[in-house]
Amino acid sequence: MPGTDAGRRLSALVAGGLTLAVPLAAQTYPPRRPDPPFAFSAEAGRALRVLWDASVAAHAERVACLGAEVRNDSVFVHRIMLLDPEGADSMSISSEESVERCGPPEWSGTVHSHVAEYSEGRPSTAFSAQDRGVMRRWYERWHADGVFCVVYSKREAHCEADGVVGGMRSRPRMVR
User: Fold this and answer.
1) Is 118 helix (H, G, I), strand (E, B) or coil?
2) What 8-state DSSP symbol labels residue 32?
3) Which domains are present in the chain?
4) Could you give the maximum distance between any two Cα atoms of the chain, in Å?
5) pLDDT reported for residue 16
6) pLDDT of res. 127
């Protein structure tokens, strides 16, 4: 993946039912714990493809709620709910709706698409400053660990899970 920070990049294929997310080795000192791997259910993979296809067709970003759980040292994304783009900002994302609708206990965070070309004729493969602002507002609203993804092609996404470090949650809880 050109132009990525190996210490922070997590690339995931979002094809239904495939487990993918391979953290790249960190080159920092002191050594950083690896990011947790992500897996997507077949249902979640199909929903992410629908999100991507709708975004490409509209030439605008789209957003969805993301349902996930931590299983040992992995994050399992089990469902996605697309949000209606009505009432959205200029990027066709209603961040207020996503912050309010995509919270616990039903949802774990959000996923959105990047379709605008950024560099080398491809969309951005990482969260933008605006994306980080929405994530911060989500944390301020819900005071919970969160899972966030950005889909930047039909089969690739960048995902991050806050509170999951090397398989250990910042606030431990039982997950079935």
Assistant:
1) strand
2) P
3) 10-169 (3.40.140)
4) 46
5) 37
6) 87
| Six token digits for residue 65 | 């709620």
d(C-alpha 117, C-alpha 24), whole Å: 24
Q: Where are the beta strands (DSSP E) in 1-59?
A: 10-12, 22-23, 38-40
- Judge whether 114 and 121 are in contact, CB under 8 Å: no
Query: Which residue, chain included where needed, has tokens 């493809």?
Result: 49
- Residue whose tokens read 């944390």: 139
Q: Per-residue confidence of the chain (176 residues) as pLDDT tens digits?
A: 443 333 233 333 333 333 334 333 334 444 454 566 889 999 999 999 999 999 999 988 999 999 999 877 789 999 999 998 865 544 545 588 899 999 999 999 999 998 877 777 777 888 888 898 899 999 999 988 899 999 988 888 889 987 643 444 444 444 44
CA distance 44 to 77: 7
Give me 69's structure tokens. Answer: 């759980």
Phi, psi of 134 (to 5 degrees): -65, -40
Query: Measured between alpha carbons, how far is residue 108 from residues 30, 42, 105 in Å?
Result: 30, 18, 7
**Taking the mean position of all CA atoms in its chain, how far away is CA 83?**
15
C-alpha 67 chain-centroid distance? 11
> In sequence order, which ranges of 37-127 are alpha helices (DSSP H)?
42-58, 95-101
* Separation CA 80–CA 101 (nearest Å): 12
